[in-house]
Each structure stands twice: as structure tokens, then as C-alpha cells.
Amino acid sequence: MDAIQKDLNKNIQILKEIFKDCDDIVYRFIQIGKNKKQICFVFIDGLIDKQLISEYAIQLLLTIDENGNLDVNKFKSNLLDTIAKEAIAVVEVDEKSQMGEIVDSILFGDTILLVDGIAQALALSSRGWSTRGIAEPETETVVRGPRDGFGETLKMNTVLVRRRIRDPNLKIKNLQIGRRSKTDISVMYIEDIVNDELLKEVFERLNKIDIDAILDSAMLEQLIEDNYISPLPQIENTERPDTVAASLYEGRIAILVDNTPFALIVPATVGTLLQSAEDYYSRWTISSFIRILRLLAVFLVTLSPALYIAITSFHPGIIPTLLTYYVAASRVNVPFSAVVEAFLMEITIELLREAGTRISGPIGTIIGIVGGLIIGQAAVEAAIVSPLMIIIVAITTVAAFALPSYEFASGLRFCRFIFMILAALFGLYGVMLGVVMLFTHMARLNSFGIPFTSPYSGLGIEEGDLKDTLIKSPIQDMEKRPEFTFPKNRRRLRRR
């Protein structure tokens, strides 16, 4: 766009043409000085703090003018500089010389001050839209630990992290992504810990993005991850500031996006996706036991229905004889094969899960519980499915909720249907084929150059990375940071 004109009326006319049919744009004119110099404040109603502009800009200008302290004729060309330094009390003030710059500032929630006869403008920081207060994250609740969670305001989110890392080496780099949305992005890292190559890779991927709008961090995640076709996430997301702070201390990088409470953490591995913030607030023995249970949950979520199909349809001889009689007796009146039975129940559970998600609050919970009980009981009484199938589906559903990462659990739920198809075609051989394919796929996955299966794949075992992966060792034994991030400074604890 063109430069700002000296004629205030021309500038206002240009702005009105740019913001044509935008009824929320406000133009506030005032006059100061003996010659009645015209000044105009331009802002978007609802995006600014009106009280701030009224008290610390407009009112001060008018008060100074009444006392005769602001001589318009005396300052002439540097009147704008005098207003910024002596006449108003707004904390952040920037000078703008291009029309495009002031348009962007208005859209970001700043107030523009234009003075007649001066080909420059002041952008007054006045962002003050309505925000949601700090509340406990609904997706990552803990029994013991901090209760604050991210909100939809980027500045508030960065402050929540800054409170936990009072270190000048914590760097925050701000970007804007989206040709139309111009969404604010903050990249956070600790300079003397993070690996330079990892940091360079993150900025390269962010700078390559060319899209109209970024509405949520999930969109950004899909644009920068290594393999967007994979059902498994290669980037961790969280609503918890303490999780972000802990990840930064490990040498990882956090990406915060405006208008969303979910922060992205890179790189992510199987080990990090199976960890919860509460692991570090509980006794190490309890945390280790829970982590082993989570690995069992991964097995149940992925393989339980497939093993039921394979054993009942192809390999009933591998289970005890009495159990075989029970399974056969429970399915004697079921008109469908084990494959149809399993798919019918799994799809029903997924529908109930989706319905409960879309209906928030207690109604959604009631739909999930009552719907599952009623449908399951009715299906058994109608001899559509066997009681054992109901038990397997229930265990599988509960196991999915035991995983800390919702995205990782969703990916495994999707893989479960592939395993069920393979089991229906080839029995246990198909299940083993699926396991090999899944492990191969995970071994080939990377997260910003870091193997997705590390440290299980062998990276960093000699350095003791498994002390905080399969189990959680006492905090006194975790003297070094994880090796998979290749941090500059490995030592985080010194015993005395």
C-alpha cells in the first residue's frame, strides 16, 4: 500500500475505502491547540480497551491542551514525537509511515492516532478483547499438580510459561502465519539447552507455510509434521504450562498459537506421548507402575478385538478347553460371525464416543454411559452379540482413555480396525503381519529428524534415557537430560 498522506481527510477516506462496510471501525476526532489541529483515533470496537484509550490518550491530550502546555505551532514536524513522549501515557507506542502498516495494526487490536499535516501515524497498544480466564485443563486433569491451563490469548499463555522459567535464556520468537488471518505464533526455547539444528529445522518449516489462515494449532501441526499421512502424531500437544516448561528444560521446542489453548511440543516420541505431567508429581514407584499399565493399554486398544476375531474364527484350539466351551456356548445363538459382531460393536462405541464429545457437559457423559449400558444389554438379550464381545469392547474403550495423549490414542484406535480386517482374513498370521507393519511404520517415522521410537530403538540407552521412559526412576537418579533431543547442556541435576 501507499505511504500515509499529510492530509488527514485523505487518510481517513483511504481507510474508509479499505474498511468499506465494516461497521465496527470507529473514527474518533478531536481538536487540540489554538489552531484547532485535528487528530483522529481509529480502532475496531470490541478489540480494544476503550477505558485505556479514553483515560491515557484522549483525555490527557485534551487536558494538556486546556492548560496550554501543548503548543502545536512550536513543534510543527515533530509534533507526533512530542505527543508520543509527553502527551499520552500508553505503554507501547510505535510510529508507522505506510498505510498497510496501520491497517495491520488496526486489525491486531491497536489504536491508530493520525494528525492532520503529518505523514506519519502512532500505533497505540490497546488490545483489550474479552478473554477466558485461567482454568484447569479439561483434557489433562491431575490429582496432584498445578491447576492452571492455557487459554486462547497468546500473551497470557507465554506469561504462564515465563512464570515457570525465570531464565534470560528462555527465548520467545514471534511470527505471523496466514496471508489473511496473520495469526500470531510464538516459538519458545531455552537457548543454552536446545540443539541448534533442531531449532533451525523448526523455523525453516514454519517459514515455508503459505496459507490463507491458521485457525488452530492442529492446522499448524499438520503443516509442519514429517509424515501427514501417518495416523500417529509426530508432534505433542498440551494445555498445561507445566508440561511445556518441563519439555523446554529437556531441550525441546514449544510452539504457541494465538486463539487456541493447545501448545505444540517438538520433537515427540513414543516415550513422550505415553508420559503424563502427574508422573513427576507422584512417587516414582507408583509412576513406574502406571507407565507399565499404559503399555498394557496400548496392547489392549490395538489388538483386543483382532485377537478375539482370530481366536474364535481360526484358532480356538489355543485357548483352554473349558474357555472354548464357554465361548462356543455364548455365541451359539448369535446369527453373525465374529468379524461382523466385532465391527458392529466397535462402530457403535465410536458413535457413542463421538456423540458424547459433541454434547458437552453432564448430558454427554450420560449419553456415553447410559447408551453403552442400554445398547450392550439389549444386544446381548437379542442375541446379536455375545457377552464376551461386550466385555472386550468395554476393556478396549477404557484402555483408550488410559493413554495421556488423545491424538496417540485416536491413531491406535484407527489401527485397531486394520488389525481386525487382517485378523478376519488371515487369523493370527494377519495379526502378526499387522504388528510387523505397525512396528516398521513407527521405526521409519521421524519427528523433526528424531526417531519416533527413541529411546526404545536404542538411541541414548547407554546414557540412561530409559530411566524416564519405560519406568520412572527416582528424581535423584535423573541427573541428565534425555539424549534424543541432543541438548547442548546435558546435566540438569548435581548431587551434593
UniProtKB/TrEMBL annotation:
Membrane-spanning intervals of the chain: 292-311, 359-378, 384-405, 417-439
Segment forming the signal sequence: none
Keyword Oxidoreductase recorded: no
Pfam families, per database record: GerA
InterPro entries per the UniProt record, alphabetical: Spore_Ger, UPF0353/GerABKA_families
Domain of life: Bacteria
GO term, biological process aspect, one: spore germination
Record key words, sorted: Membrane, Transmembrane, Transmembrane helix
GO cellular component: membrane
Annotated family: Belongs to the GerABKA family.
Name of the protein in its database record: Spore germination protein
Species in which this protein is naturally found: Keratinibaculum paraultunense
